[in-house]
Structures are given as structure tokens and as C-alpha cells.
Design brief:
Number of strands of chain A: 14
Largest sheet of chain B: 2 strands, antiparallel
Oligomer: heterotrimer
Strand content of chain B: under 5%
Strand order of the largest sheet of chain B: 1-2
Strand content of chain A: 15-25%
Shape of chain A: globular
Number of helices of chain A: 10
Helix content of chain A: 25-40%
Largest interface: B-C, 58 and 57 residues
Radius of gyration of chain A: 21 Å
Shape of chain B: globular
CATH topology of chain B: ABC transporter involved in vitamin B12 uptake, BtuC
Distance between the termini of chain A: 55 Å
Chains: A alpha/beta, B mainly alpha, C mainly alpha
CATH architecture of chain B: Orthogonal Bundle
Strand order of the largest sheet of chain A: 2-1-3-4-5-13-12-11
Number of domains of chain B: 1
Chain lengths: 365, 328, 330
């Protein structure tokens, strides 16, 4: 029994030694935006997407499309799914449905896509749980003449024709850090609640935030990042523990998911720290309205996921109709107007949107 | 833990206590060591607000673990309880936002939980399907059903009277209060009432129990229904912690509940264990999760540490039992 | 002794080793599989094609390996909840050995599989040496191994494997996916070991009555050690194939795999109380689940509906089999 506990203790000591330099980001190269002024136009890059092999000519004809998000049954992907349905209805010649795993699991998502390839759809929309793992099955779809367009979370460029990018990673990172600096000052200390360290988007945003903070807000103190899956209660407990641990030192909390941000706001509210700790993060407006209304949260950053789904289905239709070809610089997407092609084969939805007390009630998703 | 079990004074009494509540004492010891250790490292860990959140954070797991312990004591298991709590929480929230009186929103999950689990109990007791099979199947059915029904739409705009878990009774967070009361009542009931003791009899030796006049099949249905009742209470506590309900199945919740029960000393072989141990274990996990953040262990290692601690506790218990066996 | 414990509370029929009742469950299952396949083929003309069926074989390989050894584990009356985590750890170690340590990939593959074996051995040691019930022991190592995978990798992926490596998970041999060959060989090997060797008999004997087996000279502890080690090896073999199939490693690979494997094994007629079960049954269980997943999707049922159907089939199959079994014995 003593030996068992010794092992436990030794393990604990070993783990502490490794904890020092870690932020929760990934180790891919970062590209922080300049601290002030407009973002520079992204460097032009030749088309690097993949093309379907001998797709049937379906120009203007009715097509069947399946949307396979990371998982079904969460608010965010309900919103993108609604956008896809709206877009499909508006186009009139797209038959779209959403189906996917009930857990954010790379294996299950691959199986779903594989099944739909067998079933024989004309187009696949996806939001990848893992950019690399999903690529072989997407390439298989392309090889069968199926059109493939991603949104929200990318695959390898060669495994899909286009990717609708809700906002560039460095843009989100800048928006989050600048808003936090505005609320807690240049020397404030903050902590982060994220989903898991393996979620690609979150890891990417955090890495870009670290790079941008080092460049533009060097005095802000990065306390720590905790994992809370995409779960309300775990996020709430994580945020509460951070508040208890750092006491008055903690000035700001970032929520990296649309679940963690309202849970963080709730933790601040229940700890009666409104006004003393700022919550900044990615979230959908409906979940944040109560906290914005009480003034506990000042700024929420997000794109409009309904628009994201809407754009994705328009891009897919354009790719099928041949109105969006490799090398094109823009695409028309219904009520969203003309969207720009960036970074080779990505279509940019626009800059991230900051919801505040003044505008949040104009949105319902 | 040895510090608790070994002191010479009142030795016989203590030894008897240790024999009856060995694993509970191990868990309690681990909890005290952890609290003191982390408290020394970072005194903030022992502040009011921190202790409050440690105690209330896992209250719903403690409540659910009471029912789970009973099920395990009868020699069965339930891997669907996490999904059930997700479903019941969603039912509670849906009723609340649609204007049902608060007592209806709180009470319905208890009844539905009892009904669902009574069905499980019937299948286990009368159709003789192993509990793990029934509940594995039920896990899929409940999870799929919840997503089909709600599409994962969040429930928001909960009336403030509904938010049970945010209340305080006599200054104590309601979750802690309820978990403590239920633990004490359940522990006393299982130790002193004839029905309660029959649960142990069914798990220890069903043949003997039957010979002694216990209706083992009926007992199983009763135990599962009770488990559903506790799951209902846990669901209400779970669903009322925040201002929104996610209407999804909370990840790995069943594992947390089962782990709390078995680490608390409920023998998976059936027949032994108390709900005091499972409540202490739920508290220990909550304390560990907080403590890791307090002592700056990188969250990457969180799960490994939890696993090591569970393993350490289990090995310590086995060593203790073996030593006890040798003395006898 | 088992997860669901009170064997004494069950009818004796559940524990008797009668070849008649064994056959009965598998026949029920076989009929069920045939009906399911026929119905699904009727629903969608794309279901019963060579391409699709071979592809399904590829998709079920990882769960398949874990299920084969899980059959042995459950026949001994034990359970191994840590297989999904071992798969995750194996995948991470493959990446670490290859990328971070810089070993040649074949060596890294062997070492990664070995790590799984060690994990399984540790499970076995905890269970046999410390007499910890398998459910608890592997519940603890489920957290521990997954935690190690997350900690060691810091949740970073290893990518960029050489092209030849993908032959294992994405390639074909004689027109059949590589891993399907391996799975078939493993299944035949497992079936032979279980039905034709002393080791197999020891497995049944110790599951039916461990004390009796011990007294009649079965090397109980050694048998268990070997079985849990094999379970770890199977999981890490699956991890190498999985990495090759999806061309990347992630620390969350294999989450929930244990429940899929247990479902297949139990659906295949292996008694969770130990002492009863066959590899053939497990293979039928695997095929049934995979066919339902794929076939229902092809016939337009969504994911949430599919898992509900699988849950119901699991309960009903055992229910029907139990009822027939009782009639026969009664």
C-alpha cells in the first residue's frame, strides 16, 4: 500500500516538471496580425484544392447533398445545419440533409462519409474532427466524382474542392486578445477554458492568441488553460476553480467554445465577480443574452454559423454548376453577396463579428 | 490512512470500525491528505468559496452513486445512467420553460427515472438478461432518442424558481445538503431496515436470500426503480446548476458514477459496501479535479493522475483486505 | 465473478456448458444476420455489393481485433474496459517512437504493439497479483492509459507517414482490404485456440468455476495473464492499423471502443458471467452490428436512429435467445 502511493507521488512530481511552458495551443507555425490597422491582404496563392474525377454534368439539375458535421445534436451545428437547409431551399435545386455521429469522434465521422459515398450522393459538406484523418475518405469521394466542400473545420486542401472559412485563425485570435486587453488592461492576468487539447480549431486559436499576445500585448499574464470538453457543467466547474484559485489576480476568462463561454459567464455571475472578472469568448448570441443584459459580459466574438452553412451550400452549388472554378477570385453566395477566395482554395465568410449589448438582440441563433 | 487505522488508544473499537468501514476510511483518509497537502501548497484551496465549489461540484454524482451502489451491491451494473440523467434533465427543463409548476418539473424526472429503470429491472430479474446487456442497449436507445427528440437544442430561459441547485438551505448549497441527507437516509435504511438488508442478501448469496424468504426478483426491480429515483434527483440537480440545459448526454458521466461507487468500497462482486463510501468518493474526485488546477499540474496529465489515484486507492484497499485476511 | 456479478441469482442454464445451448444462440444469431442482410439488401441496392461489403470489413477491423480477445476475457468471467485507451496509447507511442525517438517505422510499429502488450500485462498483474476485480482494475487503467496518451503526446498529432505504411490500413491484397485478411486470420487462430487447445479449455474451465479449475490443476493466474496481455496486444495491433487507415495519430483514438467490443461479444452469445461463448458468435455479432450501421445509413436512417436500433437489437437478441434457451432446457 505504501509502495502504491509512492508510485502515485512520483508520477505527480514527474508531471509537474512538464507543466511549465504550456499554453494549450498546437505547434503549427503562427502568423499573428499587426497590432493596429487593417489586416494585410493575404498573399495570393495558386489553387491548392482537389477536384472530383469525371463528375457527371449536373449543371442546374437537382442534386442530393449530405452535410456531415463534427457531431449532431449541439447548438452550433444545429445553426449551420439550418443555414444549409435555408440555402438549399432558396436555391430550389438542392436536396440537403444533415447526418453525423452523436459524439465528436473521428472514426464515426469517417464511417458516415463512407456510407454516403456508397449511397451515392452528388455532394458532401463536412466539418472535420481531424484535418488529416478525414482526408483519405474525402479523396475517395472526389475519386467517385462527388463534389466536396468543407466548412468550419478544414481537411487537407487536396482532399476537398473548397473550404468555407468562417474567419481566419489569426483574425479570431486578434479579436479575442484585443477585446480582453480593452476590458482588463495591458497588464491584466487571464486564464482560458477550452474544449480539449486535441480539438484542432481551439488549439489553433490558442496558438495564434499566444503569438499575437507576445507581439502586441506582451505584459498581459497568461495564467493557464483548462480542458472541459464541450460540456456545460465541466466548463462551469473549470471556470469556478480558476476563479477560486487565482482570486483577485484573475482579471479575465476566455471561453474557447460556444459552451465554455456562457458557462464561464455563469461561474463569474454565481461567484458575484461581475465587473471584476471579464469574460470574453466565442459563443452564440442566444446563450449569452442573459449575461450581456446584466452587463456581466461585454463582448462576445463569433461569426454567424447560420450564414456559414448557407455559404457552404452556395459554394457547393457553384462548384457543381462550374460557376466556381479553380483560379476564381470570388463567388456569389445569395444574400451574403460576393465572397472572396483566399489562401488558394478557401472562401472567407468575413471578419469575425463582435456582439455587444447594443446589437446582440438583433440576432436569434 | 494508516494514521487513522493504527493509533493505539481505543484500539479495539477503532479496529472494529476499521473492519466495518475500511474502504470508507481509506477514501476519507485520501480526501484529508489531499485537502491538507494542497491546502499547504496553496491555502486558497481551503477558502470558503473553493470548498463550497468542491463540495457542490459533484453533488449530483454523489446522489446518482447512491442508487448505483445499491444496484452494484445486488451484483448488477448500469452503464446507461449517464444517458438517463441527460434525458431526465432535458425533461425537467422542457417542463419548466413550458410553464409547468416547479414541483411538476422537479417531480416528473423522478417518476420517469423510476419507470425506465423499473423496465430495466424487469428485464434483468424476470427475462434474465444480464444487466450490462440491458443497460448497454438502453444507453444507445436513450442517447439516440434524446438527440432525435431535441436535436440538441439548448433549453434557456429557465424560471428562477426552477433552479434548485443554485439555492441554499441554511447557508449550505442545496446540492450538498440533498446529497448529505440522502446519503445518511440511504445508509441507515440499508443497514437497519429489513428491505435494505435484503439488498445485501440478494447480492451476497441469492440462493440463501431466496431460502430466507426474500423475493429476489422483486427486490431487483425495486432496487433498479430506486436507482431511477436517485437518477431523477441527480438529473434535477444537474439541470438546475446553470441557466441553460444542453440537452445532450453528459460525456462519461456513467463512468464517473460507477467509479465513485466502486472506489467508495462497493464490491463489484456484490454483497458489500455502503453509500457513505460512494459519496465520499464523489467528493474525492471533485477535490482531485480542483486540486490539479491548484497545484499547476498540466491538464494534459489530469486523466493520468486520476487513473493513478484510483489505482492507488484500489491497491491500498486490496492490501488492507489481504492484511486483514492474514490476521484472521 | 463478473461485471454483472450474481451468477448465483441466474438460472443454472446460464452457466451450464451444453453444446446444444451454445449452438442455439448462434443459430438464432445466424438467422437474425441473414434476415437483416436480406432486409437491408432489399432496402438499398447499394448495400449488397462486393465493394461495400469489403469496405465494411475495413471499417470494422479495429473493433474486430478487440472483440476477439474480449471474447476470451469475458469467457474467463472478466472484462477489459481499457482496450480503447490502450488503442489510443499504442497510436501515440507509434508516433513517438517514429517521429520523436527517430526509430525506423517498422521498429516503431513493433514497439507500439509491445507497449499494448505491456499495458495488458499490467492489467493482468493487477488482477492476478492484487486480486483486484477486472472491472475495477481496467476502469482505473482506462483513465491511466488514456491519460498517459494525452500527457505524452501533449495532445499533438503525428502525421506524415511514408506511403508504404498506408498499405496496411488503406490498401488491398488480392482485392481484399489488408486488415480484413489479418482479421480473418486472427479470428481463425482465436477460434482454434479457444476450441481445440488446452489453453482454450482452461479458459472455459476458469470462467465456469475458478476455484474448481484451480484445484483441478489449471494454471489460473498464468492463463489470465496471457489473456489480458493478448487483449492489450490486440488493441495495440488495432491502433497501428487505425493509424495507417486514417494517416494520423491522435490521443483520443479508440474512445468508447470497449463498449462496442463488449456489445459485439455479448450479442455473439458469450455469457457475461463467464464459462460460455465462442469466436464464431462474436464474429456474427460484429457482422450484425456493422451491417445494421451501414445498411440503415444506406436506407436513409440517420445516426441517432441507428444507435437506437442497435440498442434494441442487442436487448431483443439476448431476450429471444434466453427464451428459446429456457424452453429447450425446461
Amino acid at each position: 500500500m505504501r509502495r502504491a502511493w509512492m508510485i502515485v507521488l512520483m508520477g505527480l512530481v514527474a508531471m509537474q516538471a512538464r507543466a511549465a511552458t504550456w499554453t494549450g495551443g498546437d505547434d503549427l507555425p503562427t502568423s499573428p496580425l499587426p497590432c493596429t490597422g487593417a489586416a494585410p491582404a493575404p498573399a495570393a496563392k495558386p489553387y491548392d484544392g482537389g477536384q472530383p474525377t469525371k463528375p457527371p454534368n449536373l449543371k442546374g439539375k437537382k442534386i442530393s447533398v449530405v452535410d456531415v458535421p463534427k457531431l449532431i445534436g449541439i447548438g452550433y451545428f444545429n445553426a449551420t445545419s439550418k443555414g444549409i437547409a435555408d440555402g438549399a431551399k432558396e436555391l430550389g435545386n438542392v436536396d440537403a440533409k444533415t447526418d453525423g455521429p452523436t459524439k465528436a469522434n473521428i472514426d464515426e465521422q469517417i464511417t458516415f462519409i463512407d456510407n454516403y459515398i456508397t449511397q451515392g450522393v452528388n455532394g458532401i459538406l463536412f466539418a472535420a474532427n481531424d484535418p488529416v484523418a478525414i482526408s483519405p475518405v474525402l479523396k475517395k469521394a472526389l475519386s467517385k466524382g462527388i463534389h466536396v466542400v468543407g466548412y468550419d473545420a478544414n481537411s487537407e486542401p487536396g482532399a476537398r474542392e473548397w473550404f468555407v472559412n468562417q474567419a481566419q485563425f489569426n483574425g479570431i485570435a486578434k479579436s479575442l486578445m484585443d477585446n480582453m486587453a480593452k476590458e482588463i488592461g495591458e497588464d491584466g492576468a487571464f486564464a482560458i477554458v477550452t474544449s480539449t487539447f486535441t480539438t484542432p480549431n481551439q488549439a489553433r486559436w490558442i496558438a495564434e492568441m499566444a503569438a499575437y499576445a507576445a507581439k502586441c500585448h506582451p505584459k498581459m499574464k497568461w495564467l493557464e488553460t483548462v480542458e472541459a470538453q464541450e460540456d456545460n457543467v465541466l466548463s462551469f466547474n473549470g471556470a469556478t476553480t480558476l476563479i477560486n484559485k487565482y482570486g483577485d489576480q484573475l482579471k479575465g476568462l476566455f471561453g474557447m467554445t460556444s459552451v465554455a463561454t456562457p458557462a464561464g459567464a455563469e461561474a463569474i455571475t454565481q461567484a458575484k465577480k461581475c465587473g471584476k472578472i471579464a469574460e470574453v469568448g466565442l459563443a452564440t448570441p442566444n446563450a449569452m443574452k442573459p449575461y450581456v443584459a446584466t452587463g456581466c459580459v461585454k463582448s462576445v466574438v463569433l461569426w454567424n454559423p447560420v450564414d456559414l452553412g448557407y455559404a457552404a451550400v452556395y459554394v457547393l452549388r457553384a462548384a457543381v454548376d462550374g460557376t466556381l472554378k479553380p483560379g476564381d477570385k470570388s463567388v456569389k453566395a445569395g444574400k451574403l453577396g460576393t465572397l472572396t477566395v483566399v489562401n488558394g482554395s478557401e472562401i472567407l465568410l468575413g471578419p469575425p463579428y463582435v456582439f455587444t449589448k447594443e446589437n446582440i438582440n438583433n440576432f436569434d441563433f | 490512512m494508516e494514521a487513522i487505522a493504527a493509533p493505539p488508544l481505543g484500539a479495539r473499537r477503532l479496529r472494529r470500525l476499521a473492519a466495518a468501514y475500511g474502504q470508507e476510511l481509506v477514501v476519507l483518509g485520501a480526501l484529508v491528505v489531499l485537502m491538507v497537502g494542497v491546502g499547504l501548497y496553496n491555502p486558497r484551496f481551503l477558502s470558503d468559496t473553493s470548498l463550497t465549489s468542491v463540495f457542490s461540484g459533484n453533488a449530483y454524482i454523489a446522489v446518482a452513486a447512491i442508487g448505483m451502489s445499491m444496484v452494484i451491491i445486488t451484483g448488477n451494473i448500469d452503464v446507461s445512467v449517464g444517458a438517463l440523467i441527460g434525458v431526465l434533465g432535458t425533461i425537467a427543463g422542457t417542463l419548466a420553460v413550458n410553464g409547468a409548476p416547479t414541483w411538476v418539473s422537479w417531480g416528473t424526472p423522478l417518476l420517469v427515472g423510476m419507470a425506465v429503470n423499473a423496465v430495466i429491472g424487469l428485464l434483468v430479474a424476470y427475462a434474465r438478461i444480464p444487466a450490462i446487456v440491458v443497460t448497454l442497449g438502453m444507453l444507445s436507445i436513450l442517447r439516440g432518442g434524446l438527440i432525435s427528440a431535441t436535436g440538441g437544442k439548448w433549453i434557456s430561459g429557465l424560471p428562477s424558481a426552477f433552479r434548485l441547485a443554485q439555492e441554499r438551505f441554511f447557508g449550505v448549497p442545496s446540492g450538498v445538503f440533498i446529497a448529505a441527507i440522502l446519503t445518511v437516509i440511504a445508509a441507515l435504511w440499508m443497514r437497519y431496515s429489513s428491505t435494505g438488508r435484503a439488498i445485501y442478501a440478494v447480492g451476497g448469496n441469492a440462493e440463501a436470500a431466496r431460502a430466507a424468504g426474500v423475493r429476489t426478483q422483486g427486490m431487483l426491480v425495486l432496487v433498479f426503480a430506486l436507482h431511477g429515483f436517485f437518477a431523477g434527483i441527480a438529473a434535477v440537480l444537474f439541470a438546475t446548476q446553470l441557466q441553460v440545459i444542453q440537452s445532450t448526454v453528459p460525456p462519461n458521466l456513467e463512468m464517473s458514477i460507477i467509479t465513485a461507487s466502486v472506489i467508495g468500497g462497493v464490491s463489484i462482486l456484490g454483497g458489500t459496501g455502503t453509500v457513505i463510501g460512494s459519496t465520499l468518493a464523489a467528493l474525492l474526485f471533485s477535490a482531485i479535479a480542483s486540486a490539479l488546477i491548484f497545484v499547476n499540474i498540466s491538464a494534459y496529465w489530469l486523466r493520468a493522475v486520476l487513473g493513478l489515484l484510483i489505482l492507488g486507492t484500489v491497491l491500498a484497499d486490496m492490501a488492507r483486505r489481504r492484511r486483514k485476511g492474514r490476521i484472521q | 465473478m463478473s461485471v454483472a456479478g450474481s451468477a448465483e441469482g441466474r438460472p443454472a442454464a446460464g452457466r451450464r456448458l451444453s453444446p446444444r445451448s451454445l449452438l442455439r444462440h448462434e443459430s438464432v444469431l445466424l438467422v437474425l444476420v441473414v434476415i437483416t442482410l436480406a432486409m437491408l439488401a432489399h432496402q438499398s441496392d447499394r448495400f449488397f455489393t462486393t465493394d461495400n461489403l469489403l469496405n465494411q470489413g475495413r471499417l470494422m477491423a479495429e473493433v474486430g481485433f478487440a472483440s476477439l480477445t474480449m471474447t476470451f476475457v469475458i469467457i474467463t468471467g472478466g472484462i477489459d474496459l481499457s482496450v480503447g485507451s490502450i488503442l489510443g496509447l499504442g497510436a501515440i507511442m507509434l508516433g513517438v517512437f517514429w517521429k520523436n525517438v527517430g526509430l525506423p517505422l517498422p521498429v516503431a510499429m513493433v514497439l507500439a504493439v509491445a507497449v499494448g502488450g505491456v499495458c495488458g500485462l499490467v492489467n493482468g498483474l493487477i488482477i492476478t497479483r492484487f486480486r483486484v476485480p477486472p472491472l475495477i482494475a481496467t476502469l482505473a487503467t482506462l483513465s491511466l492509459y488514456r491519460g498517459l496518451a494525452e500527457g505524452i503526446s501533449e495532445s499533438r498529432s503525428v502525421r506524415g507517414y511514408p506511403e508504404w505504411f498506408f498499405r496496411l490500413g488503406q490498401g488491398d491484397v488480392f482485392g481484399v482490404p489488408t486488415q480484413v485478411w489479418i482479421l480473418v486470420l486472427a479470428a481463425i487462430f482465436g477460434a482454434l485456440v479457444l476450441s481445440r487447445t488446452t489453453f482454450g479449455r482452461a479458459t472455459y474451465a476458469l470462467g465456469a468455476n475458478e476455484t474448481a479449475a484451480r484445484f483441478s490443476g489449471v494454471a489460473v493466474d498464468r492463463t489470465k495473464l496471457l489473456i489480458y496481455t493478448a487483449s492489450g496486444l490486440a488493441a495495440s495491433l488495432a491502433s497501428v492499423i487505425f493509424v495507417s487507415r486514417v494517416s494520423t495519430t491522435r490521443s483520443d483514438m479508440g474512445t468508447g471502443l470497449e463498449l462496442d467490443a463488449i456489445t459485439a461479444v455479448v450479442l455473439g452469445g458469450t455469457s457475461i458471467f463467464g464459462g460460455r461463448g465462442t469466436i464464431a458468435g462474436t464474429v456474427l455479432g460484429l457482422v450484425l452490428i456493422q451491417a445494421l450501421r451501414n445498411g440503415l445509413a444506406l436506407s436513409g436512417v440517420k445516426g441517432d436512429g441507428t444507435i437506437m436500433v442497435i440498442g434494441a437489437v442487442l436487448i431483443l437478441a439476448i431476450l429471444v435467445s434466453n427464451m428459446l434457451g429456457r424452453d429447450g432446457d425446461g
